[in-house]
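Researcher: For the annotation table, I need structure tokens for HTH cro/C1-type domain-containing protein. Please keep the output clean. Sequence:
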Amino acid sequence: MKNKNIIGEKIAFYRNELRLKRPTFIDKLNKMLGSKYSPQALYSWETGKAMPPADLLPPLSKILNISILQLFTDAEVQQTDELLEKIDQLTEENEELKKEVDQLKKENYKLEGKLEASNTILQDMIENYKKK
């Protein structure tokens, strides 16, 4: 029942922001969908007496010039935005760490080569010393 009020309040709020009367708004919706909703249906959605059908959420949000998420609570939208920001931040950090790991692998490869060369030189020196 709570979602009825939230969505209805959002529809009413954004409809009023656009300065659209209920009949004008419902006419736009009906023209978009080829349907026959009444201003009374819109009134019942806005007051929480009824919930608009789920398939109306995309057209409603389009007419209201908002995302479907904005029909739900601001807290939910804010949480989604915060999660998306965190994902972006973690993705960037991950990319930086990958570059750092690649650089360390290259340095390790070079050091292994130097160590192998040094070991070969030492082995040769030991062999030469034993021959003398």
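Researcher: And a one-line annotation?
Model: The mean pLDDT is 89.
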